[in-house]
Write a structure and sequence with these properties.
Rossmann fold, seven-stranded mixed β-sheet, globular
């Protein structure tokens, strides 16, 4: 029939969906079973959080460089850290290390508000622009020393740290509500993700995944 056209998705869109599906299947095989977390991973367009040079690798289960000597974490690490937070939709979350803003965007799908601190000004500016472009309105971001947390907004229901600490930071534990959870990488050469739960008597600790993060550094760089 002359003049007729086939309505549907482009080949590029179909290929992108296939890559996302493969990633979600891989995450399930690796122990990500929380359907809310998987849905958030599916809905946040990771290609918007990487440089154009890495767009075709956005849905690989791999960390990618983002500038300022930092990386966007591999999706498995993002998903496992998010799952272990056990987020509720009314919770207030502190994130230390905004980076590209990808982890922030995933958190924003699952809680009431995210307060995120980044020490690299260029990364923060780029992340905030992505939040605006994607219509993410429940994130408050600022430039600062993440090792100090965000005392003006404490206490938090949950805290997530995306840089490796030498030990459990008492300042951040102090900004957790009783019963609150903090997820962070701990260690130097050998690092593990650690789940910290604040109790009436102190804290309970458990490790759940070997990882490799940049170190948690005090102070601000000269950007």
């Amino acid at each position: 029939m002359t003049g007729a056209c086939v309505k549907g998705k482009s080949g590029a869109a179909v290929a992108a969906e296939a890559r996302i599906i493969r990633l979600l299947m891989e995450l399930r095989r690796e122990g990500v079973t929380d359907t809310r977390v998987l849905s958030a991973i599916e809905k946040v367009p990771r290609e918007r959080f990487v440089s154009s040079a890495f767009t075709d690798r956005a849905y690989e289960n791999a960390a990618l460089p983002i500038g300022s000597g930092q990386t966007i974490s591999q999706p498995l690490v993002v998903a496992r850290m998010t799952q272990e937070l056990d987020l509720g939709e009314r919770m207030k979350v502190l994130e230390i290390g905004t980076g590209s803003g990808y982890q922030t965007a995933v958190l924003a799908k699952l809680c009431r508000r995210v307060y995120t601190v980044e020490r690299h000004r260029p990364l923060l500016a780029e992340a905030e622009e992505r939040f605006r472009a994607l219509g993410i309105h429940n994130v408050t971001a600022r430039l600062g020393d993440g090792s100090r947390g965000w005392p003006e907004q404490a206490p938090f229901d949950r805290i997530i740290v995306t840089a490796a600490a030498h030990d459990i930071p008492p300042v951040l534990v102090g900004q957790l509500k009783p019963g609150g959870i903090m997820i962070l990488p701990v260690g130097e050469t050998d690092q593990d993700l650690v789940k910290v739960r604040r109790t009436e008597g102190g804290i309970d600790l458990s490790s759940f995944l070997p990882v490799r993060f940049v170190p948690l550094v005090e102070g601000l760089p000269e950007d």
